[in-house]
Amino acid sequence: MDYRENYEKWLSFDGLDESLRTELKGMDEATKEDAFYKNIEFGTAGMRGLLGAGTNRMNIYMIRKANVGYAKWILEQPNGAERGVAISYDNRHMSYIFANESAKVLAGFGIKTYIMESLRPTPELSFAVRHLGCAGGIMITASHNPAEYNGYKVYDDTGCQLIPEWADQVTKYVEEVEDELAVKVPSSDEAYDYINWVGEEIDEAYYEAVKGCEINPGLDKSDFKIVYSPQHGADNWPVRTVLKDLGYDIVPVLSQCAPDPDYSNTKSPNPEVESSYDESIKLAKKVDADVIAITDPDGDRLGVVAKHNGEYVLMSGNQSAAVYLEYILSQLKEKGKLPDNAVMYNTIVTSDLGELVARSYGVDVEKTLTGFKFIGDKIRKYEKTGEKQFIFGYEESYGCVVKDFVRDKDAVQAVLLAAECGNYYKKQGKDLIDVLNDLYAKHGTFKESQIALAKAGVEGAKRIAEIMDNLRKDAPTDIAGVKVTLAEDYANSTRSDGTTIDLPKSNVLKYYLEDGSWIAARPSGTEPKCKFYFSIKGTDANDASLKTEKFQKAMMEIIGE
After folding, report:
1. Under 8 Å between Cβ of 423 and 416
2. What is the DSSP pairing of strand 42-43 with strand 46-50?
């Protein structure tokens, strides 16, 4: 069935939501094709896309279809129907409706659900799965994407997003649903006995667990101020409650605290975008804050700005994580609490700096593919064997986890860690940037950056595939005149030196350069983008910046952009 047939099928469906019917009638031909040329797919973080009518959009019909597949998978888990599924959602358009549709579809399969009574962040959903002993979890969110997006993430019984093997099983069941418009959904009355509303009891348990992340709980918190913004998202009360209970002077950006799905008072809800910090920096200057923290809409990512020499300096996810690691490991070592078998996890597109910090303390490092599900899976493995003890996990895109009672990125834990780090080092006469510069002096100066080429629609998908195919067919032997010493192709599990990669297959290419830098390319699993990651090593900050510009320009020339 081509996109025109799909479009006509939806338009002629008697039971179609009238708002979607109106949207269908207003579509031009290009929009019809993009909305119906394929079914929206699972990526590295579940199913995510534009809200609206169509099989390639997020709407109640595609949510229902996805839940049929997930329900069948849950029923295969030990006592899955009785253990049930925890469900949470953020502030986005349709999030509450999608959560309720999910619960009703699962009820149709005899599966219990536990829905949060109001919006809660992703890490609290991960915690709730474990706390309630559920067989799985659902989070309705599009994370840091713009307001016109929403998404659907599914979890296993450890609170970890489904690894590819299990996600493939769910996908198989989803694809067996021939007609998304024909999925039968129980009425609210019929589903009533299966649906449970939860909230405060989960909040209290989660907040107490987060408070337990303090390394130096007796540290004096006077003379330290942190400005915080939830960017209109779900972390507002969790972050403010935890930090206030622990005695921190936390100053909220009130204009960005309301759960507004249009993100009216921020230029972007994404901590990776520099302009998202504008209002927070204005307030920080006014109150003379030491640290700024902002979280994304579903509360799993944290961006940090540190006051340094009177200026507010934005830290990348790689930089802040390296400082967190230094603090955690130095304090545990000082207290004699650093395990001999400690292990830290990060991803193949994460800076080398964190690895160097960890190894300097004798901590093992294991890399995973992009996506926190892989870090969660590593934690599960060693939890069972006891071979290694988890100490920290992070990825470059502003996500980390400190304690493994959550198996996803946890910005509530991260805000507490940023506050404790900032407070501790201020009392040593330093700020977070001073600590970062000390790490550069010890381990080498690194500059990490990213170029995300947006390629929307049918033609965009073709162009992304073409870029990756061309790089495979004609792999660069040098970039900007610097020799490529090793090339890795994660889709084929091969390296140019003849060795193999022992990770699940993924569409990622990585080039190691003679000067200690590396560059990686991968299509995004959740957005219509092709991403290029640059980890550039220089003799100092200026050298690293100049080299970054050179490598970025050269890489774009290689791919013809």
Report:
1. no
2. antiparallel
Residue pLDDT, tens place only, 276-291: 999 999 999 999 999 9
Q: What is the band of 41 on the pLDDT scale with cuts at 50, 70, 90?
A: confident
Does an H or E element contain 479, and which? strand 478-479
Cβ 318 vs Cβ 448: under 8 Å? yes
**Count, residues in the chain:** 561
Concerning whether 397 is annotated as a catalytic residue, the answer is: no
Q: Catalytic residue among 88, 95, 102, 143, which? A: 143
Q: Note the pLDDT tens digit of each residue in 328-367.
A: 999 999 999 999 999 999 999 999 999 999 999 999 999 9
Residue 191 is assigned to a structural domain of this protein:
no
* Cβ count near 459 (within 10 Å): 12
Do residues 399 and 473 both lie within one domain?
A: no
CATH of the domain at 117: 3.40.120.10
Residue 10 maps to a domain: no
d(CA 494, CA 23): 46
Residue 200 falls within a domain, yes or no?
Answer: no
- CB burial of 389-424 (b: ≥16 within 10 Å; e: otherwise) equals bbbbbbbbbbbbbbebbbbbbbbbbbbbbbbbbbbb
Spatial separation of the C-alpha atoms in residues 119 and 117, rounded to whole Å = 7
Provide the pLDDT for residue 43.
60
Are 311 and 342 members of one domain? yes
Domain coverage including residue 64: 36-181
pLDDT exceeds cutoff 60 at 44 = no
